[in-house]
Input
Amino acid sequence: MRCDRVWRGARLATLVEGADGLGIVEDGLVAAKGGRIAYAGPADGVGAIEADEIVDCEGRWITPGLVDCHTHLIFGGNRAHEFELRLAGASYEEIARAGGGIVSTMKATRAASEAELVASALPRLDALLSEGVTTVEVKSGYGLSREAELNSLGAARALGVARPVSMTTTYLGAHALPPEAGGDKDAYIDGVIGLLPEIARSGLADAVDAFCEGIAFSPEQIARVFTAAKALGLPVKLHADQLSNLHGAKLAAEFGALSADHLEHTDEEGAAAMAKAGTVAVLLPGAFYFIRETKLPPVELFRKHGTKIALATDCNPGTSPLTSLLLTMNMGATLFRLTVDECIAGVTREAARALGRLDEVGTLEAGKSCDLAIWNIERPAELVYRMGFNPLHARIWRGQ
Ligand code: DI6
Ligand code: FE
Output
């Protein structure tokens, strides 16, 4: 086989579906050609290889490049002041109802140009990349007007051009009610739906998301958004059952959503419906931690029904100012009692599935994009066990 680059002397966690655990290969080799994986597996499982460059990994571990499948990286300002208010006793919902929360970020986002949004998001993106992230999802949802939502999606696309990373973007117009809507949620949802054809035509968004919650939008309003999105061929995902159980998980499953995210209050019916529909449960322990939530997502029910579980940072200024997928894994294990294997699969294979990109990324398999994270660790558990330490040795995106 003739290829561009070979990494040998590595231990692989291939994450191949159906393999035991992490799909470990002790004496492993990865070969790249044209930015894609030409071979990943046992060194003795492939014939003679010629390559322009051969890298000796000296026993290091290689995982698929990490995938952060739920972020709100694009926003103006920050909410450090509200953090202080919360420390003084105010709740997240009280702050939101008093006009703070998402609406305060909306004002800062509307005041920023696309270039300013990109500039303020780049350090957050760089923090993710420094830990081996090679695919990121970014949502709009802090603009809440036609111009500001399109600006945010444009900024998200521009982020993906500014750095070597695969970017997927999501239109989250149904995130919160802007003040100029005068309290009329149905009319605002009409506007969100009205923008969908332009979003679809422009190619600015790969999916549509919404926030199903008392402080946001009702299941009926979300069903209207999802019906319109699907008619335009846009896949959907949902912020579901984060603060209360409005049966968002079941709603997401009914629409064949790629994922339902948060899910602290999801019940067994929702977990089972998600498994049946192939809707991934994206758990967000950063938000759980930051708002001091006490209701745990029903991990046992997801296991029982075979619902796939992913983990993401939910990086956002209000409930999860978190830019570390490694710390997210630690929180997934410590707070949600996920196993090491579940955590690592949750930021690779299952996160890729939650984006509808499993055919491209998320495992070490021939044909996929050659996105690798090479780690200075002795065993995979080290990726989950440490807090605030980055053992990344090298990050490879599309074979480079
Ligand atoms: N759920 C969340 O945790 C974030 N958005 C959402 O739908 C919070 C967004 C914020 O407070 O800025
Ligand atoms: Fe979110």
In short: The CA atoms of residues 113 and 151 lie 8 Å apart. The longest strand covers residues 2-13. The chain has a mean pLDDT of 97.
